[in-house]
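hi support,

uploading two proteins for the ticket. first:
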Amino acid sequence: MKFQVQKLEVSYTSVVILRIMLSLIFIVASTNHFFNIEKVVGRMENAHMGFLGSLLGTPETVVMLSGIVMVVAGVALLIGFKTRYAAMLLIAVLIPITLTVQVGQMATMGPLFKNVAILGGLLFFSINSNLKIQKQ
């Protein structure tokens, strides 16, 4: 069975807007990891699957490292620098955060599916790294 390669045209402006809006959640969240570390550590420790975060190191270390990755990759995504790699780094941070803090908490189904939607946006940029402006 052969798959036919199809091209989809999208507005470059819409892709830039998506990239900027998607990056902002990580940049803002990273500030929480730096300036409210006790609160973030507490949320992780009180989460149903919070023990997963401890597998990677002390909770404080994990929160600080994830904050660093989120701000660096978030800014890279914001400005369009190495977009594919920035998206993949953010995916690598988002999945453990989602598994640790969101999964298993029925009260947080909204945030769980928010993270699923964010993951979809990040997958878009990790798959479509060759977005270019076509001159007409």
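and the second one:
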Amino acid sequence: MTGFLFELAFLLAAPVWLLMIFAPGWRGTERLAASPLTVLPILAVWAVLAAPVLPELWTAVSSPDLDAFRDLTALANGAGALWAQVIAWDLLLGQWMYREARRLSVPPLLMAPLLLLTILLSPVGLPLFLVVRAIWTTRGERRPVRAPA
């Protein structure tokens, strides 16, 4: 059961990621990416995985210690719960990146690899996106403002 839930966490996030990468201009993608509710099913998986290891999880987060986290991740449910948490927060991060990119008119062909990288390694994808965002923001500020006709 734990293995299934571990896989389910990503499978619940995958459709949102696929839409943001492969159908960024579709209105349904924009509505879905604007909702923080997309993570609720993943957080439900987290709750099911976390419940049996709640004492170990509480110890690991209430007084962070490498050994406590090592002990938590040695438990299948502990590792699964941490995985589901990472998947949920990465998805929220990806949705924010997608919305910012749409707002700034960052080309989807540039965003697709950044979103893919964020799925795999968000600590790399986010800073790269922030660089792109800064460049696009600066470019937008340099464009002349035209008076309405």
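thanks. also noticed: The chain has seven helices and no strands.
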